[in-house]
Every structure is written in structure tokens, then in C-alpha cells.
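User: C-alpha cells in, sequence out, please.
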């Protein structure tokens, strides 16, 4: 599996594109905010002759859904996420304005609800859905066992964890979920978070100050 990361929008969010030798691809947390970011995404997909087959969200905070309308309009793919985060989409425009972002369209509603243990298939690749609530009630991670790669959203960062002071956040729930759902993975598993650099499970088990 190949990985392309686009750092998008004022929040420096990691928009992640996964694809394999079949040219089928999935986008996770499309945060494309302006025309330059959207064009960069389209150019990469076009030049690599990729077929985008799925739009996934680790959670539905505004910085992770700013490109969902773009993906739906251009590629015909509505987002898939946890039902527990639906309330965040309903209030997305108001929340964006609270953060100083105005003029955005209402993000599209979730087309298919994902839950813990689901499998997402594209090309010759598979992602397992791992529910990690706490940063948001419907927080999800996506794990490729074949590639030892975890897309952790805003649950686990290099040297940190997701904030839990936003609506629906729960610090105890998040810490427990990371310990029982993520730290049981092998130490060499690469962790690609929603913001910032890549890390590994082993590195976070040994050095993350929250644990």
C-alpha cells in the first residue's frame, strides 16, 4: 500500500490518500479547504491514474471534513463515518464560524455508518475499523495489518493525544481506548495521525507522557 499525505487548511490537517497496485484508492479525512489544495489533490489522483472508491472519516470535527463536499462533487463519494459523530456535522457551519472560518457550505451527511470491527476493502488492500472514542464520541482509527499502518485521526499523536475539551470529549474514555485498542498492536506499527508527524506504537507506549 502506498501513502500520500496532503497537509491542508488553517489547522494543518493531514488528508491521507491510500492506494495500491490496482490503482484503487481511499481518502481519509479530506480537509481540502481552498482551490489550491483541491487542485493539488486532483492533480495527484489524475497523474497517478487513481480510481477513488471510498471517502472515510476518522471523526467529524470541522478541520477533517472541509473537503467532503469537494470529494462528493468531483468523485461522487459521500463520507463514511461513525453515527456517534452525526451531531458534529449538523453544527459544522456554526462551529466553523466560532473558529473564525466563514463562508463554508454545509458538509454532506454520512452515507454509510462504520463501526468497530468493520472491514473496508479497496483493490488488494484491507483496512480494519477500530473504534477509539474520547476525542469525539465516534472516533475511529483505520488499521492495515498487512502494512502495519494505523491511521489514528486525532486519537493518538506523536507525543500526545487528542484534546477532550470539545463537545462529546472524554479524557478517561480516550486513554482507556488507546490502551486497550491501540497499544495492543505491535510496536513496529506506524502511526499516521490527523496532525503532525508519523510515529510508532512502540514509541508512544514508551515515551508518550499521557501514559
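Assistant: Sequence out:
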Amino acid at each position: 500500500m502506498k501513502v500520500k499525505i496532503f497537509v491542508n487548511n488553517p489547522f494543518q490537517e493531514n488528508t491521507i490518500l491510500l492506494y495500491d497496485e490496482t490503482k484503487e484508492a481511499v481518502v481519509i479525512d479530506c480537509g481540502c479547504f481552498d482551490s489550491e489544495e483541491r487542485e493539488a489533490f486532483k492533480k495527484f489522483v489524475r497523474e497517478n491514474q487513481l480510481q477513488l472508491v471510498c471517502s472515510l472519516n476518522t471523526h467529524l470535527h470541522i478541520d477533517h471534513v472541509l473537503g467532503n463536499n469537494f470529494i462528493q462533487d468531483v468523485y461522487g463519494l459521500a463520507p463514511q463515518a461513525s453515527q456517534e459523530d452525526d451531531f458534529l456535522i449538523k453544527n459544522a457551519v456554526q462551529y466553523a464560524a466560532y473558529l473564525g472560518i466563514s463562508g463554508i457550505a454545509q458538509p454532506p451527511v454520512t452515507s454509510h455508518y462504520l463501526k468497530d470491527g468493520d472491514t473496508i476493502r479497496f483493490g488488494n488492500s484491507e483496512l480494519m475499523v477500530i473504534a477509539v472514542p474520547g476525542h469525539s464520541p465516534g472516533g475511529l482509527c483505520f488499521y492495515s495489518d498487512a502494512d502495519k499502518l494505523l491511521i489514528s485521526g486525532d486519537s493518538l499523536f506523536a507525543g500526545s493525544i487528542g484534546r477532550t475539551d470539545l463537545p462529546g470529549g472524554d479524557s478517561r474514555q480516550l486513554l482507556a481506548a488507546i490502551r486497550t485498542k491501540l497499544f495492543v498492536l505491535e510496536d513496529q506499527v506506524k502511526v499516521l495521525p490527523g496532525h503532525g508527524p508519523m510515529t510508532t506504537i512502540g514509541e508512544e507506549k514508551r515515551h508518550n507522557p499521557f501514559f
